Amino acid sequence: xxxxxxxxxxxxxxxxxxxxxxxxxxxxxxxxxxxxxxxxxxxxxxxxxxxxxxxxxxxxxxxxxxxxxxxxxxxxxxxxxxxxxxxxxxxxxxxxxxxxxxxxxxxxxxxxxxxxxxxxxxxxxxxxxxxxxxxxxxxxxxxxxxxxxxxxxxxxxxxxxxxxxxxxxxxxx
Length: 173
Known about the structure:
Layout: E1 2-12, E2 22-25, E3 33-34, H1 35-38, E4 52-55, H2 71-81, H3 84-103, E5 109-120, E6 123-128, E7 132-136, H4 141-161
Helix pairs in contact: 2-3
């Protein structure tokens, strides 16, 4: 019984969920973004033909959404945008643009998983860490490295629990 190789992999998340940004609709609602007005010249509306994007956060405007923001941070927001209303509208538009980039395939959700190839009684098997999923593919490399190290730690614990004594270093981390 021995560990042959350990690697850390990034895999596309088959259960991507970007609803934290917003949803699409055929019907307008308060605070929605009309995609026909924001689309590039001549570009199709896309995203299954839905005309409206309804941001999950920021609109419709609610002054109470800013209660958790410190005075100093709030002053910086007002200085940058002119008001919290304009800031909320800008943040909603950023969420819309992020969702549209996802629709175009500019980014996706991925998972990071550590994988061990092992040999037990002459048979090769694969053992994986649980993985961390729902990570934006354009997250920084430092974040991916940190998550990879966490997954390696989890995989090593699994391998020890299964009785593996010698666990080699991971390849390509």
